[in-house]
Amino acid sequence: MDLSYDSIESDADLIEWSRAYCRTVRRERGVSVRFDLVDWEVSHRAKRRAAAVKRPKLDGAIVGEPFDWESLDGSDGRPLRCTVSLTREAFETFDRDEWESTLRHELVHVEQYQRDGTTDHGPAFRERAAHLDTDVHCPAFSDPKYVLTCGDCGDLVARRYRDCKLVDERESYRSNCCGASLELT
Q: Model's pTM, two decimal places?
């Protein structure tokens, strides 16, 4: 890696460093990913996700069952391209260990997608994430606009970054912990 982590300034730098780090993880930890089928971008709008793998939805794709890529019309048997979208605000908020963990998390998604045609956070993901020493969910990096808590015990029920049905109709929902109404804090 020619570019040091501390010298990342532009979106191009962020992509270059992140891509190089992911290639190192692939080599050192045996992650089965074809980077020639992965595009990279940086988001300046995302508030809930530190990064994401954008991919087409494929009918019949199930995590844990290798996808028959040749079954797609015009396919040469290679997986379709996907895009790793990195969130600039998350990068600027996280320390290096958190950012590297985020990238390993996304590598699990790319690996699942390229093999199975889909990805999720189910048991196979959790097992692979543990092997790569990463979390199933990335830490929050921005403050939500709405926080919903249990009306009885005050436990966190949900964070929302924009208005939605849960926020608008919160009086018709109940918490899982106590069955109490939800409060907006």
A: 0.83
Quick check: 32 pLDDT over 60?
yes
For residues 40 and 42, give the distance between their C-alpha atoms in angstroms, rounded to a whole number: 7
**Looking at the domain assignment, is residue 160 inside a domain?**
yes
Could you report the per-residue pLDDT of 81-120, keeping only the tens digit for each? 999 999 999 999 999 999 999 999 999 999 999 999 999 9
| Total domain count, the chain | 2
If asked whether residues 114 and 152 sit together in one domain, one would say: no
* Distance, CA of 88 to CA of 9 (rounded, Å): 10
Q: Which residues span the domain enclosing 82?
A: 5-131
Diameter of the chain measured on Cα atoms: 57
Please return the burial class of 129, using the count of CB atoms within 10 Å of its CB with bins 0-12, 13-18 and 19+. buried
Residue 141 belongs to a domain: no
Alpha-carbon distance of 50 to 80, in angstroms, equals 23
Same domain? 20 vs 99: yes
